[in-house]
Amino acid sequence: MHKLKNVRPGILIIADAGLKLTPGEEVTLDKLSRQTERAVASGYLARVETDAEAKPAARRTGAQKADAGTDEKQPVEDKGASS
After folding, report:
1. Cβ–Cβ < 8 Å for 15, 35
2. What does the angle CA 1 – CA 21 – CA 14 come to, to the nearest 5 degrees?
3. Residues 62, 65, 70, 71: what is their CA dihedral angle, to the nearest 10 degrees?
4. Which residues are registered as beta bridge partners of 13?
5. What are residue 36's DSSP bridge partners?
6. What DSSP line would sit under 28-69, residue for residue?
């Protein structure tokens, strides 16, 4: 299943899929047509994550949680002209 959203400011017509999408409208398709794939690649349609797809990305293992907090910012030396 593919959930897509029209991100254009106007109506988007995809003839081979029989779609007429208003701005911001979302649609769920079983299969992407050739024109639908091109609209996604061109940025006219955006893929929308469903809750089932988003949950696995949000889960972290213990090692990943430990590594997440170790990204401390290091001081940057000024190598520019001195007074």
Report:
1. yes
2. 75
3. 140
4. 20
5. none
6. EESS--HHHHHHHHHTSEEE---HHHHHHHH---HHHHHHHT
Task: List pLDDT tens digits, range 38-76.
Answer: 999 999 999 998 766 666 655 556 555 555 555 556 666
The backbone region for 37, taken as left when phi is positive above 0, alpha when psi lies in -120 to 50, beta otherwise, is: alpha
Contact assessment for residue 48 and residue 7, using Cβ atoms and an 8 Å cutoff: no
CA distance 68 to 3: 31
pLDDT in tens, 15-43: 999 999 999 999 999 999 999 999 999 99
Report the greatest alpha carbon distance in the chain.
Answer: 69
17: helix, strand or coil: helix
Closest by CA to 5, choosing from 27, 29, 35, 36, is 27
